[in-house]
Amino acid sequence: MHILIIGAAGMVGQKLTAQLLATATLGGDPIDKLTLVDVALPDRPASRTIAIETQAADIAAPGVAGQLVASRPEVIFHLAAIVSGEAELDFDKGYAINLDGSRFLFEAIRQAGRNEPYCPRVVFTSSIAVFGAPFPERIDDTFLMAPRTSYGTQKAIVELLLSDYSRRGFLDGVGIRLPTICIRPGRPNKAASGFFSSILREPLAGQEAVLPVDESARHWHASPRSAVRFLLQAAEMDTALLDMRRNLNMPGLSATVGEQIEALRRVAGDRAVALIRREPDAMIAEMVENWPKDFDTARASALGFTAEDSFDAIIRVHIEDELDGQVRP
Amino acid sequence: MHILIIGAAGMVGQKLTAQLLATATLGGDPIDKLTLVDVALPDRPASRTIAIETQAADIAAPGVAGQLVASRPEVIFHLAAIVSGEAELDFDKGYAINLDGSRFLFEAIRQAGRNEPYCPRVVFTSSIAVFGAPFPERIDDTFLMAPRTSYGTQKAIVELLLSDYSRRGFLDGVGIRLPTICIRPGRPNKAASGFFSSILREPLAGQEAVLPVDESARHWHASPRSAVRFLLQAAEMDTALLDMRRNLNMPGLSATVGEQIEALRRVAGDRAVALIRREPDAMIAEMVENWPKDFDTARASALGFTAEDSFDAIIRVHIEDELDGQVRP
Questions:
Q1: C-beta of residue B219 within 8 angstroms of C-beta of residue B291
Q2: In this complex, do B153 and A163 lie within 8 Å of one another by their Cβ atoms?
Q3: Is the minimum CB–CB distance between A244 and chain B shorter than 8 Å?
Q4: In this predicted model, what pLDDT tens digit does every residue of A167-180 receive, in sequence order?
Q5: Where are chain A's structural domains?
Q6: CATH class of B2-179+223-249
């Protein structure tokens, strides 16, 4: 089996790659080849059994999508995107990469199938940014897409295209709306949602973190490990079960910042919690208030998707996967 | 005020044109100029007070959208579309006209606003085809878009673009999801939904009509006169009331075919009803079963949009507007 990952150099792409190399199978079939693509050349991991190809490519550039599917990969993970903040700052770039790039990919697959049958599984990472306030207390599987960002708009449009191309038999798509990934490994970044991770990640490494919102702020989370599991399951699942609704809210954990902090206290103690410094930021607080807080993910649950059920578990994933089991404070 | 109608040669476009010429004002402002555009040259109606320009143009062709907005119309009615059946048969053409054509228009407006402020009201006719089964008994204002046709997909995508371009201040959009228009004037056509109109229109003209579904089949209707009123109200309304949700389910009448027939009997008598010939068609019956049947249009109602509340009223609109008050049988 040949698997193509577009957006392979990102955090989720790297973890997905590592997992595919570790198991060397997908859906019971051995993986022979892995093509890793990103706008900057991805690192080439070592493997004795799997042929690995790496490529720097911009899917929004003419001809690139056609070239990527020319070797007819059976499974395509489409993770590539300009992030929310950048798509908001650069309107043209966001639409070019997030909308046109995805459409070029789907269209290249359709064209590839014109001469010889070709209908790859396409797993697309969408986002809870397709939703916009006002929300019900829990967002269910039939709630409308009403994005309040260009990024969310682009994700919603690609979901619709994925469904239509799947319905027409041009590809076999699954769109998964990921919760906010927590604890995101690496350095603090300027994303408005970054504090959800940093208030745990920095104290676990013995460093100070800034909390810009009230402890009552509620949000929707899943670990990087869950995100990778969602992707693999979306690649392996029986899509006949989706009927025509190809896009799924992924399960997650609804928790307040206060609940995050209490979990940190249980796992890493008061010294870790003491490293969180309150620095209220009204703008961030207002943005967070307009983000989804909780979901009823009945469809995904019925299909067997599961996420962490406590923040203790989310923190433990980080300690195991990123800190070699060690907590500093 | 300068008004541009794209898709002016269609049934709704012609009725809208006639209404604008009759009142010669919109939102209290006098209309100086009306530009009528369609893929085939629209008829040029007579007016002593309003300058009328007609133009044959394909909005999916390069440069056309820019040329259409160069004169900076204050209000743009965007009614142009490839219909459902054709968009399903010709995948490329449907996406080119219904998606790319609309995006070119929005983008041309955005570009026109870069040098000198420009933010026209854009009224876009969407469709209940953005919804797909399974449905709740009544579809409310927060139900998901899950189209089961390429046409519905294209309409849903343009709605999302309309919202995002409005949110960014590039244009001031209102998308209205029209019910099935009944009684559609003119000759019988091959649209699967055509019988909803023809079982009334043909008998009212003393001609036979074919009913392919059971009398229990339920659907969502509004008259052509209501459709024009919706468009005018969408052009005149205070869009601040929409917040970020720029697309509205329009009110309509949920009725069974049996209720349509009983209304025909009340308005035109048993002889009219006797002209309806049952000719069950399982394929049409199944399609109709998968179309929306009823809506709770609370948002539109709160904004003052109203439709007919009986099929008697819908039939009377047709007799007044199309038959000079005369019923044949």
A1: yes
A2: yes
A3: yes
A4: 999 999 999 999 99
A5: 2-179+224-249
A6: alpha beta
Interface A–B counts its CB contacts (< 8 A) at 56
Question: A325: Cβ–Cβ under 8 A, 6 or more apart, which residues?
Answer: A319
Distance from CA of B277 to the nearest CA of A (A): 35
Annotation marks residue A151 as catalytic:
yes
Q: CB of A248 within 8 Å of any CB in chain B?
A: no
Q: What is the DSSP letter of A295?
A: B
Q: Is there a contact between B142 and A145 if contact means CB atoms under 8 Å apart?
A: no
Query: Which pair of tokens denotes residue A203?
Result: 């104290």
The reported pTM is 0.97
For residues A83 and B108, the model is more confident at B108
Q: Would you call B115 exposed, middle or buried from its count of C-beta atoms within 10 A (0-12, 13-18, 19+)?
A: exposed
- ipTM, interface predicted TM-score of the complex: 0.96
Nearest to B144 among A91, A136, A142 (CB): A142
Strand partners, B34: B3, B52
| Torsional sign, CA A274, A276, A277, A278 | negative
Q: Is B194 on the interface with A (CB under 8 A)?
A: no
Binary contact (A160, B157; C-beta < 8 A) = yes
Instruction: Determine contact: B135 vs chain A, CB below 8 A.
Output: no
> What does the pLDDT look like over B97-120, one tens digit per residue?
999 999 999 999 999 999 899 999
Helix axes A224-236, A11-23, angle to 10 degrees: 60
Tell me if A161 and B142 make a contact (CB, 8 A cut-off): no
Which of B197, B202, B184, B323 has the alpha carbon at shortest distance from B272?
B202
Length in residues, chain B? 329
Which residues does chain A have within 8 Å of residue B244's beta carbon, measured at their own beta carbons? 132, 146, 148
Report yes or no: B157 and A160 within 8 Å, Cβ to Cβ: yes
Whose structure tokens read 């402020």?
B117
Amino acid, single-letter form, for residue B17: T
Q: Reduced to 3 states, what is the DSSP secondary structure of residue A124? A: strand
Domain A2-179+224-249: what homologous superfamily? NAD(P)-binding Rossmann-like Domain (3.40.50.720)
Asked whether the beta carbons of B253 and B128 are under 8 A apart, the reply is no
